[in-house]
Design goal:
The protein is mainly alpha-helical. About 45% of the residues lie in helices and about 10% in strands. It folds into four domains: about 85-230, 3-Layer(aba) Sandwich (Rossmann fold); about 245-300; about 310-430, Glutamyl-trna Synthetase, Domain 2 (Glutamyl-tRNA Synthetase, domain 2); about 440-525, Arc Repressor Mutant, subunit A (Orthogonal Bundle), CATH 1.10.10. It is elongated. The structure holds one RNA strand.
Length: about 525
RNA sequence: GCCCUCAUCGUCUAGAGGCCUAGGACACGGGCUUUUCACGCCUGUAACUGGGGUUCGAAUCCCCAUGAGGGCACCA
């Protein structure tokens, strides 16, 4: 039986790249009726956090990537956090030690750095090997355990890339137990993959050069290694790595633009408005702080959108999980036909390793937004409402205060014209708050004599209506649209008066959703005495 | 620097020697529809990195060059 795993390290949120790795593993296992394991690789005591692990689980579940074994599933309590499995690793560490395949090494990090630097200066690659000259003797510092890599070429068959060979003199005796007693990633991953019965390791290509090391360990431990497949990486549209730094960078750019635009060079006004101390903002701008939460907060205060990097970001922007999954699946994989919109079931049915390409891809947010729009348009009202509520729970828009019926109506009128729930919620703010009037639109569509006349006449036509429904307003609206010489001439005046700008859903629906009081008072407010 | 991998429209990709005057999707341009914006429909621009081979025939196979990416941690 096929068994795959996704093994994130809990040092941050679930990144879209990680989500894709998880998805492919999940699809591969499920397609073949196998099992999917989730394992938390928290062997880095400094950077791992419990909150991060919890966040990753939550994001996995939001995406619908459920696991057969892992945290909260599969019986063995805590058995899927590597930090809880130290005794297991120690057992195999001792085995290697006893068989003389592992040995202690005593160089301090500083010494190693100096050795690397010396090699670099001599234009020679640095390789730590047991038989190299000048190794430190046992001394004051705590020791690490290194694995003596075989002195032979290692070749393996990558299920995506084909045969990969690394020559004997390229090997390095990797550290397998750190001085804090924790195993390194290389060791823990091999032991766990073996013990958990993983048959296929599907991971990002950045791990390609790790595989020979792992194969060396499998051999030394006397185990049959799993199949390996390395998938291409995903980058930003400009070819840079998708990293959380993209968010802080975008926030800084936004802040700089804000400072000159709003004449707030010291961010004193912003500090007050965002309730963030001036010093904190200064530290952030001065790159002394890479806190993405802070970046998010400041960006929100100045109305700047940060690029989505983590699954949570996409969730907060109002993407649907299925759309995100569908899009991510298509970066690096293709079903081999001209098909793009694929349901979860279709993905499951069509997925195969053979469909995974070899070339790195770029993350085209425009296409994702289009695809999400397709999902929004295709979803049933119930599914859509549920997804919208999920979005509203993790974001902050006045739309959250609407009752379910109004949400349904707004969804109905916005689904044809929106890519994300965030975009919709943003555009629909005028239903809940007084509109921010766009000066240009007002000049062009509201204060002209003709427009003023249209507004007065519209008011006269609408005010007598008390049955404020689509049916009740239909004939009055029909007459409003007939005002002027050209049909629809009055529409823009009304649209700007009601929404604040030149763009809105169709007027009739807008007026119904807005309600009688707001509609009439906004029209009145825009009729100016001459 | 050394090692590894990759290479089709701006982007994601189809393509497993003749079906390719290279197909689809996003984006972009034009048009239709239209109370705005969208949606929808029609339509256009746009690619096999270069050079050598192999072959009757190459986007597809081989070699070299170039370019891009990854790796070279007591991070994973």
């Amino acid at each position: 039986m096929i068994k795959t795993r996704f093994a994130p390290s809990p040092t941050g949120f679930l990144h879209v790249g990680g989500a894709r790795t998880a998805l492919f593993n999940w699809l591969f296992a499920r397609h073949h009726g196998g099992q999917f394991v989730l394992r938390i690789e928290d062997t880095d005591q400094v950077r791992s956090t419990a909150e991060s692990a919890a966040g990753i689980l939550e994001d996995m579940l939001w995406l619908g990537l459920n696991w057969d074994e892992g945290p909260q599933v599969g019986g063995k309590k805590n058995g899927y956090f590597q930090s809880m499995r130290l005794a297991i690793y120690e057992e195999y560490l001792q085995q290697l030690l006893k068989e003389d395949r592992a040995y202690e090494a005593y160089e301090s990090p500083q010494e190693l750095a100096a050795m690397r630097k010396a090699c670099e200066a001599a234009k020679r690659p640095f390789r730590y090997r047991r038989n190299m000259p000048g190794r430190s003797k046992a001394g004051a510092g705590p020791a690490v355990l290194r694995f003596e890599m075989p002195h032979e070429d290692i070749t393996f068959q990558d299920e995506i890339l084909g045969p990969i060979t690394v020559k004997a003199d390229e090997h390095d005796d990797i550290v397998i137990r750190k001085s804090d007693g924790f195993p390194t990633y290389h060791f823990a991953v091999v032991v766990d993959d073996h013990l958990m019965g993983i048959t296929h390791v599907l991971r990002a290509q950045e791990h390609l050069m790790n595989t020979p090391k792992h194969l060396g360990l499998y051999k030394a431990l006397g185990w049959t290694p799993p199949h390996h497949a390395h998938m291409p990486l995903v980058f930003n549209m400009d070819g840079t790595k998708m990293s959380k730094r993209d968010k802080t960078r975008a926030a800084r750019q936004g802040l700089a633009a804000y400072a000159s635009r709003q004449k707030d060079p010291d961010y004193r006004l912003l500090a007050e408005r965002a309730a963030v101390p001036v010093e904190v903002i200064a530290a952030f701008v001065g790159k002394k702080n890479e806190d993405t939460q802070l970046a998010q907060k400041l960006a929100a205060a100045i109305g700047v959108e940060l690029p989505e990097i983590d699954v949570q970001d996409f969730r907060r922007s109002g993407y649907m999980a299925d759309a995100l999954l569908n899009f991510i699946a298509l970066v690096g994989w293709s079903p081999g036909e001209d098909r793009e919109i694929l349901t979860r079931d279709q993905l499951l049915q069509l997925f195969s390793l053979g469909g995974i390409g070899k070339t790195n891809g770029r993350f085209d947010r425009k296409k994702l937004a289009w695809m999400n729009g397709e999902y929004i348009r295709a979803a049933s009202p119930d599914v859509l409402l549920q997804a919208l509520n999920g979005f509203l729970a993790v974001s902050d828009y006045p739309l959250a205060g609407a009752n379910e019926e109004l949400k349904r109506d707004l969804l109905e009128m916005y689904k044809e014209r929106t890519g994300t729930f965030g975009e919709m919620a943003h555009n629909a703010v005028f239903f809940f708050e007084e509109p921010q009037y766009d000066a240009k639109a007002v000049t062009k569509h509201v204060i002209t004599p003709e427009a003023q006349s249209f507004l007065s006449q519209s008011l006269a036509l609408l005010e007598p209506v008390h049955d404020w429904t689509l049916a009740g307003l239909e004939s009055a609206m029909e007459r409003v649209l007939s005002l002027g010489e050209k049909r629809g001439a009055a529409a823009q005046a009304l649209r700007v008066a009601l929404s604040g700008g030149p763009v809105s859903p169709p007027l009739l629906q807008t007026i119904v959703a807005l309600g009688r009081d707001r509609t009439l008072s906004r029209i009145k407010a825009n009729i100016r005495p001459t």
